[in-house]
Specification:
Helix content: 55-70%
Number of domains: 2
Number of helices: 7
Strand content: 5-15%
Strand order of the largest sheet: 2-1-3-4
Structural class: alpha/beta
Order of helices and strands: EHHEHHHHEHE
Distance between the termini: 16 Å
Number of strands: 4
Largest sheet: 4 strands, parallel
Length: 137
């Protein structure tokens, strides 16, 4: 299973395909393949990030409806506690983190899932945390 970050969803859902370069097209194709395989996982916080800031109501409704095909991963109290501990570990190594980024790491690690993101912060997180990053073939 693969926990997909906002950055990848945004490429696929918020940008026009004709505006994507070759690398971004490869990433969106990888996301579509993961969806076809039933391997995509989504956090509610990521859903909120994807939908935030969309000024066009019809685009908002289209993306909201597309995302409704995916259930939000159920979170435990321990996911939040582990995320805070991971943030402390990263900070101790001089790596800044975000609350949602650490929640993604915590949930992915707890379930043994890979993280799919274009956000380079996850590369830095992986230097400190035993997370697995998804890399499209």
């Amino acid at each position: 299973m693969v926990l997909v970050d906002t950055s990848v969803w945004s490429l696929a859902l918020r940008r026009r395909a004709v505006d994507l370069g070759p690398q971004d097209r490869r990433l969106t194709q990888a996301l579509y393949e993961l969806v076809r395989e039933g391997r995509v996982q989504l956090l509610g916080a990521i859903r909120q990030e994807i939908l935030s800031g969309i000024g066009n109501e019809s685009q908002f409704l289209r993306i909201r409806n597309d995302l409704r095909a995916f259930e939000d991963v159920a979170l435990r109290t321990g996911d939040y506690e582990d995320a805070a501990q991971m943030a402390n570990q990263c900070r101790g190594k001089g790596i800044a983190s975000t609350p949602v980024g650490m929640l993604i790491c915590s949930v992915a690690l707890h379930h043994g899932w890979q993280v799919f993101s274009t956000d380079r912060d996850f590369i830095h997180y992986a230097e400190v945390l035993p997370i697995q990053l998804f890399s499209p073939a």
